[in-house]
Amino acid sequence: MVPAKRSNKWCVPSFDCEIINELPVKRTFVKDSVGELDKVLPNVSLTQNNFKRRKHETSLSKLLEACEPQKLSELAVSRQKQNEISNWFQYKASKRQPSMLVLSGPSGCGKTVAIKLLAKENGFDIIEWITPIDQIEDENKRIMRQGDKFEDHMIRATRYRTVLSNCSKQLLLVKDLPNVYHEDHKSFFMLIEKYFQIGKEPVIFICTETGNSRLMQTLFAPDIREKFGIDLISVNATTQAAMKTMLKRVSGVLNSIAGDMLYVSQHIDEILSNSVGDVRSAVLNLIFISLKVPERHLKSECGLREETLGLLHGIGRVTNPKKKLDGNSLKFVHDPEEIAAFFQSQSVVFVQFLQENYLNTIRTIEEATVASDILSLADVLNSEWRDRNLGKVALSYCIRGLMLANEKPVTGWNPVRKPRDDHMNIRRCLVTAETRWYESIIKPCSKKTNEISIENKDEDMEIIIEED
Amino acid sequence: MSLWVDKYRPTTLAKLDYHLEQAEDLKNMVQKRDFPHLLVHGPPGAGKKTRILCILRELYGSAAERLKVENMQFETASKKKLEILTISSNYHTEVNPSDAGIHDRIVVMELIKATAQTHHIDVGQKEFKVILLSNVDQLTRDAQHALRRTMEKYISTCRLILCANSTSRVLPAIRSRCVRIRVPAPTGSEIKNILHSICKREGLHLPDEFANRVIEASGRNLRRAILMLEACKVEQCPFTADQKITEPDYQVYIRNTANMMVSEQSPKVLLEVRNRFYDLLTRAIPCDLIFRGLLKECIKNCDDQLKREIIGIASEYQHRMIRGSKPIFHLEAFAACYMAIYKKYIESSLEGFM
Amino acid sequence: MHAFLKTGKLGAPTDVKKPSTSRAKDDKKDLTPWVEKYRPKNVDDIVEQTEVVNVIRQAMKHGDFPNMLFYGPPGTGKTSIIHAAARQMFGSMYKDRILELNASDDRGIQVVREKIKSFALRKANPIGPDGKKCPPFKIIILDEADSMTGAAQTALRRIMEKEAHSTRFCLVCNYLSRIIKPIASRCTKFRFKPLSDEKSISRLEYICNEENLKADRSVLEKIVEASGGDLRQAVMCLQSITRLKGKNYEITVDDALDVIGLIPDEKINALWEACKKGNYSNVETLLENLLLEGYPGSQVIEQLNEKVIFSDELSDKQKVIIGDMLGECDYKLTEGSDEYLQLLSIFSTILIAWKSS
Fold it and tell me: Domain AAA+ ATPase, which positions (chain B) (predicted)?
């Protein structure tokens, strides 16, 4: 084994965030001061010394915090939704009666920030529930169940005021529900009932819509909301335009506080085309991508880092292959091999995206035949789980095949579409399909929903790629 | 009120309407002490399930009809919990193991073990219980092998009745361990008799010509015929000879999709066709059915050589669909391929014309 | 596939709790599968396979065996011969001296290591409990050895060598090519021929006689023909018929066909003729009806194959085209494709093949 002392030396952190040779005593001091400073960032001016120190210590999350909007006008949530929330604060929450709001929307669209800002605006103090990780003991040293603790919090937290704030009104914010309620719906409903009997302060639940969490369907189903009079405001994903203004603002902020670490401006467009309505990840990407890398690294190992290629760009390059004249033969501008190498880890998703989008740029049915045959075979290869390499083969085959098949791509403006869920989880059984259909005729009153009108529940997300 | 299909389902072997000789055989077999494993197969709507229920009733008497519906829990090796709907009486358990998808092996094994080990004292004259597995042909290979092993192990305490549409996909090893009962689809006249008797009991008059048309449209599928009849009753009663027969909307939809492909061949149409496939898929229509429906419509006005070509690609892509995981890819590939072939055919025949 | 046609292990249900009246005893006798009931008890009873029987008889005289590897089509008496020989040699010790494993038991490498090893290590006394002399070795029968994994077979090799002094191995399989070379070279190989129809029929006749069944010779011929030299399948078929029809029943050809799952020739012929005439819509309706009758697609392919191979009307080239398609579709069917589509594809190929002549 290498002695510990040496091991410190060879693992030089790549971001230069931590000073290794610092004496322990000194380090604790520094940390404390930084912790304090971060709270008041960025309004408080820093002493020269501390500022310098801070720059070295700034972690990504700190930078991210600094990017949070400070004014209503900076919010990524649309004006109209802001008004809705504001109205709720004014008309519902201020009545000193139990009231409940569910705020739903895709991740990273700025729900929490909006609530925090608007609450401040309307003079509310936020008490946030954070699910504890450790076991909690009550006064008799018995271990409390998380659900009980949560219930306790919901009903009683607002009884006591903090001395620190001068707001007169309080509000409870719940971002992550204790896991018990995901399974045990009944006890959650009992809790709501109890809250509406004895609770005082308004409660806001923030529900992030992700694929596997079905809170909106289970815990806050429409009939439940109706029963208790729970309000629902759903926030849409951030629009491209809002994202752009936001990124511009953020880049300004970043430049001012961490200018010597980051090159910001040049990456904005790239980030913009890759974000899918998620502000948080866009900002994170921005910070990460624009981190300054010391010169010596840049030359060799890290040279490739500039080559980030978004999924959507990749799709664009394949569905719309560009050729250039090289000598007297045509060559692809973008090497299929490179694209394939880039998306190796997400072969299945990439092929799905290709399938959804390839038809837009294809001119003749013959080319479509070749392309669809390639995709069909790629799907078979991808489903073969016995050989893990087949995924790569399928991807490479698919990318090359589609690029070759499409001889004269249709130029024009083609939004890249998200692949649709083709409902594989439904059991396909002729007997059930048939019986159900006839039943709907025979007993029309009981089943009205079986009309041919097929709603496409998930609105297709359209993302625009400029022709590059 | 239950549907006619359930209401007029015969409950004993003696009351069956057709395949009388086979019913006699089954009765013979039930009365013997060495009741074997059964593999009941036949096309959909031929009366497999009815016969199985009759056998159960014959074995255990009316107690086999007291059913309770339960959700059984299974745990996979990766600790994932599965819930499967089972219908059971004191003497038998019915389950559709393919509901569990790729975890069907666990369901099959656990279920048989659980049933075989809880031995009933008051089973009465029979010392075994029956497990009824439906859609055996959709079980994975893995599950079928497991089934074979457990079949032998627990033969003293339980018997299996397997129900499948076709035995092609059932392992030969399982086939050979069962007595195979083939249930052919009823003939037109048999269906007609049943329709007439239902109408009589409902107090309706059924014009002969109308009955013929229903039978024609049902494709010798008794269940479909009865459902159609009941649907027609709702729409127009009393029946008239020239009444419209309501076809399932998806059949019309598939047909229209095929017609789109015939009338124009371009990537734009392909895109529309794709959307229609999505529509069908969201409504849980079996993909096999879509393929068959499309093919039937597509090859209507082709010559034999072309037909053979199109059937060839259909069988190829249908096979790929089974092996792959996204039906839409393969449906689309078939549509595209068909359109290209058809376009070429039309163009060449036009050239010949000029 | 016939490797799996094994119900020998089904075993008689053992749970007869009824008072031991003669009726119950009768029942129990009834419950034994005929395949077990009529298994030859004596090496001399083995039908056909004269060379193998001679060699085994010689070996028994000397009271020793080599390791043996039996291969050949299913239902030709491979397992029966080794059981019969063991029974004759060991007499009452028969049960203790034999370990039989078949593919139904989990037979990974672990089992080879543990079960086989522990059995091989057991001592075999040269003198039986009754004081009679008894050959001092045990026999391990590995049924369906060709479905063992390669790793398990390799593990077996060491054990075979180490325990050579007290244990004889008898491997039974259908395909010699699936046994790894080192194992094959350590065994004396015996090939089993398919039984001749004549011998099979006489065996079935014997069973019919014992069980009081009435069956015409033509019916038995049909059963034997359908089972393709597989005596076990033929016997099982006979038993299935009695299960359905009861005893004292004159078995007809139709019953036999139904139980075996054969499609009546006239249905296949009708389709064949329609293809020959080149009438597509006719083919389509006939095929639809065939499937509605509930005949399995794989069976259609099998019977068509026979027909194509022995057809005099087709040229070799046509046979190739059709045979190719048959193979492909059979594969797709076992993978779970739609029967209608696959069969349609076969028949349309045949139709075109006829036209091209």
Answer: 34-189
Q: What three-state secondary structure class fits C247?
A: coil
As assigned by CATH, the class of the B4-182 domain is: alpha beta
CB-CB under 8 Å, A383 with B323: yes
Q: Within chain B, where are the H helices?
A: 4-7, 20-31, 48-60, 104-117, 141-153, 172-177, 188-202, 208-218, 222-235, 249-263, 267-282, 287-298, 304-323, 327-353
Domain ranges across chain C = 34-191, 197-260, 265-356
Tokens of A363: 């001119």
- pLDDT on residue A158: 59
Nearest CA of chain B to the CA of A444: how many Å? Answer: 9
Contact with chain B for residue C130, Cβ under 8 A: no
> What is the third-level CATH fold of C265-356?
Zinc Finger, Delta Prime; domain 3 (1.20.272)
**Mean pLDDT per 10-residue section of chain B, whose length is 354 residues:** 82 86 85 83 89 88 82 76 82 82 79 75 67 85 79 78 87 80 90 90 87 87 88 81 81 90 89 90 82 88 86 92 87 92 89 74
Residues C51-94 pLDDT 10s = 888 888 888 888 777 888 998 887 788 888 888 888 888 877 77
Tell me how far apart the alpha carbons of residues C232 and C98 are, in angstroms, rounded to a whole number: 22
The pLDDT value recorded for residue A421 is 64
Which chain C residue's Cα is nearest to B167? C296
For residues B271 and B274, give the distance between their C-alpha atoms in angstroms, rounded to a whole number. 5
Task: Please tell me which residue, C199 or B79, carries the higher pLDDT value.
Answer: C199
Q: What is the pLDDT of residues A417-446, one digit of tens each?
A: 777 765 555 556 667 777 777 777 777 654
- Mutate which of C292, C332, C342 to test chain B, going by most B C-beta atoms within 10 A? C292
Instruction: Give chain C positions within 8 Å (CB) of B330.
Output: none
Q: Is the pLDDT of residue A53 over 60?
A: no
Does C181 touch chain B if contact means CB atoms closer than 8 Å? no
Instruction: Name the CATH topology of B249-349.
Output: Zinc Finger, Delta Prime; domain 3 (1.20.272)
Q: CB distance A435–B99 less than 8 Å?
A: no
Judge if pTM exceeds 0.80.
Answer: no
Q: Do B29 and C244 touch (CB under 8 A)?
A: yes
pLDDT on residue B170: 85
Specify the DSSP class assigned to residue C142. E
Query: A430, B317: Cβ pair inside 8 Å?
Result: no
Q: What six digits make up the tokens of B8?
A: 């007029």
The 10 Å CB-count burial string (b at 16+, else e) for C101-137 is: bbbbeebebebbeebbeebbeeebeeebeeeeebbeb
Phi–psi pair at B84, nearest 5 degrees: -125, 135
Instruction: Give the one of B34, B314, B322 whose C-beta lies nearest to C30's C-beta.
Output: B34
CATH, domain range C34-191: 3.40.50.300
Instruction: Give the pLDDT of residue B338.
Output: 92
B 167-226: CB under 8 A from C: 167-169, 171-173, 175-177, 179-180, 182-185, 219-220
State whether CATH 1.10.8.60 applies to domain C197-260. yes
Check pLDDT > 60 for residue C307: yes
CA nearest A402: which of A332, A468, A461, A324?
A332
